Amino acid sequence: MRDILSMPDEVFSDQLRVRSYEVARNGMVGLSTALRFCEALATDASTALGFDPSWYQRHHTAWVVREMDILLGRLPHIGEELRLATWVAEYRRVQAQRDYAIWHATTGAMVARASARWAYFDTARGQLTRISDDLLDAMQSAGHALSLRCATRQGNYPTSGVPAVFTLQAREYEVDTQQHINNCVYADWLSEAFYHAMQTRQPKVGGTNLRPRFYHIEYIHEVMAGDKLRIETQVAPRGERGVISRQVIELAESGTPVVRAYGEHLRMDP
Predict the structure, then answer these.
(1) Is the pTM above the cut of 0.85?
(2) To which CATH superfamily is domain 153-267 assigned?
(3) Which CATH number fits domain 12-148: 3.30.450.40, 3.50.50.60, 1.10.3720.10, 3.10.129.10?
């Protein structure tokens, strides 16, 4: 099997130092911050090829993430230097698969490996559209896709029992330039709902000292500021040190699914 951080020769690469406001109370970068690193990296990769945000605005198009798989390794602390890389692994008519790698600059240890399915969207018509030839010519597919789909996610996740329910309201400050809630914000909500579920179910699954190891997130429906949301979380033990979760975010009033997610979490050493 290829190394988890293997990548093609032609990638867009960058580096950064973890800032104090990017870590959680455990002192480490979390799921949502890792996703924000990936989002910024994809934007910078497009800009480097001449397709900056203003180009998409002029052409009334945008990339919208539909699915994200992310595998987390040794999470970094404040001040640690990271290296990042991204590339397009595959194109389809209206979609692209983009892969990401983040690792520690000094040791080479993996921070995150991710793969996202992005859809190309016509913002004027409000529907998917064929990817621009200019984009296809400049943003060549490098191949080298690496599946991160854990075997457990194929169906062996908790589906029975009464889920823990967490409610919230989407805020104006969570809206991005596409005028809806940024896709990375959902990871904040999922993490908060998972923590709530663990507090509720602790006697059954044991402990709350956990960190995410893998997440699959499927984005189904956009959310606007002011929308009231309901998050259902089911958890179950996985081995001696792990917990698996199945989560659904839905619009509280209509029950419309917004996000479906599957997570694997590992107990942290004391």
Answers:
(1) yes
(2) Hotdog Thioesterase (3.10.129.10)
(3) 3.10.129.10
The lowest-confidence range among 27-41, 100-114, 157-171 is 157-171
CA–CA distance, 64 with 96 (Å, rounded to integer) = 10
CATH fold match for the domains 12-148 and 153-267: yes
Torsion of CA 4, 10, 11, 15, to 10 degrees: 100
Q: Please tell me whether residue 135 adopts helix, strand or coil conformation.
A: helix
Would you call 172 exposed, middle or buried from its count of C-beta atoms within 10 A (0-12, 13-18, 19+)? exposed
Q: Are 214 and 264 in contact (CB under 8 A)?
A: yes
Strands (DSSP E) found in the chain: 12-17, 61-72, 81-91, 95-104, 110-122, 127-128, 164-169, 210-219, 228-238, 242-251, 257-267
Q: Taking the domains of the chain in order of start, what are their residue ranges?
A: 12-148, 153-267
Give CA separation, 100 vs 86, 87, 263, in Å: 4, 7, 19
HSE of 142 in the Cβ direction (CA atoms, 13 Å)? 19
pLDDT digits (tens, 9 = 90+) for 241-260: 788 999 999 999 999 999 99
Q: Are 101 and 89 in contact (CB under 8 A)?
A: no
